[in-house]
Inverse folding.
């Protein structure tokens, strides 16, 4: 490996190569599930930052449908997703179906089984990744996933968002961090791979508190993580709170964010794969588009530009993932 190839962190691509022996492309699908923080069982307004439309690809929904939860059959979504991605990932032949929208373990067991199996029965799908809330899993769901994991790759990806109860309460998450700890442990005990999603920049959290989250997560049997900067999206409770001046959020400059992420990576266990460092939502969904990162010529900074910047900064520092834990 040349010095330029040394990206200084454990990439998700390397993790998937270890797990599945080669490149496998993720395909987002929307299985039509809902969310207990939206349907009234935990809450009705959702988490304050959530606008699910912002991250559901268009191929998941029928053209004339106004109701989001009416979705196309999963096998059709997978076929369309493969065609949709083919221009970009020409070499992709193997896929993981990513149950992304809303809470994908929030339905009766037989419905979950049917939806997961529909994806797994597609000839080009080798496994499933299930995004969900920590309070939407139990022993029975884990037993089902463990059964499926005997023949396929299965991973559960939890929306952790914050390790602090005060923050989780502030963003109306509807569960505490103890639920996250419990869900991650339950998943690992069933032999199922487990990832998480963490937001940096949630209201009220200091830089030190965000960095301390790396150590909190290090203590859990987590195999991968996605980091996102807080983005204020249109049609969210958060956008209203910011507009009315009820809440102050810190908008990172790109340089500040890269510095924070590099510090975080230095504190993170070096066997936790990092899938992404930042989120990217189409400008039409941004409530504060002026705060989006741009190049000097006005172009938006694209998500794929962030990882090389993290690598460059770690190389400049002479550090890497887990560096601060070895000192
Ligand atoms: S972020 Fe997830 S848990 Fe929160 S309201 Fe949206 S779908 Fe539900």
């Amino acid at each position: 490996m040349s010095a330029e190839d040394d990206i200084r962190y454990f990439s998700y691509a390397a993790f998937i190569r270890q797990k599945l022996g080669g490149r496998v492309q993720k395909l987002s699908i929307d299985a039509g599930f809902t969310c207990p923080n939206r349907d009234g069982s935990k809450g009705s307004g959702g988490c304050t930052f959530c606008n699910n439309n912002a991250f559901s690809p268009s191929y998941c929904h029928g053209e004339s449908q106004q109701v989001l939860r009416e979705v196309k059959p999963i096998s059709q979504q997978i076929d369309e997703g493969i065609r949709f991605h083919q221009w970009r990932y020409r070499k992709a032949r193997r896929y993981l179906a990513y149950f992304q929208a809303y809470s994908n373990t929030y339905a009766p067991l037989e419905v979950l089984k049917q939806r997961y199996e529909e994806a797994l029965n597609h000839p080009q799908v080798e496994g499933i990744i299930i995004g969900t809330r920590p309070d939407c899993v139990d022993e029975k769901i884990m037993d089902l996933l463990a059964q499926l994991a005997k023949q396929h790759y299965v991973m559960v990806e939890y929306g952790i968002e914050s390790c602090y109860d005060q923050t989780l309460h502030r963003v109306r998450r509807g569960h505490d961090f103890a639920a996250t700890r419990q869900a991650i442990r339950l998943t690992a005990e069933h032999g199922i791979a487990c990832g998480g999603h963490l937001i940096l920049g949630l209201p009220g959290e200091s830089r030190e508190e965000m960095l301390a989250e790396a150590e909190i997560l290090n203590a859990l049997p987590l195999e991968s993580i996605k980091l996102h900067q807080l983005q204020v999206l249109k049609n969210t409770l958060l956008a209203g709170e910011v507009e009315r001046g009820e809440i102050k959020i810190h908008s990172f400059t790109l340089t500040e964010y890269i510095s924070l992420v590099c510090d975080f990576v230095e504190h993170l266990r070096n066997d936790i794969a990092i899938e992404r460092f930042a989120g990217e939502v189409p400008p039409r969904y941004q409530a504060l588009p002026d705060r989006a990162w741009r190049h000097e010529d006005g172009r938006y900074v694209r998500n794929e530009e962030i990882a090389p910047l993290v690598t460059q900064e770690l190389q400049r520092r002479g550090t890497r993932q887990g560096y601060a834990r070895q000192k």
The radius of gyration is 19 Å. The chain has eleven helices and seven strands.
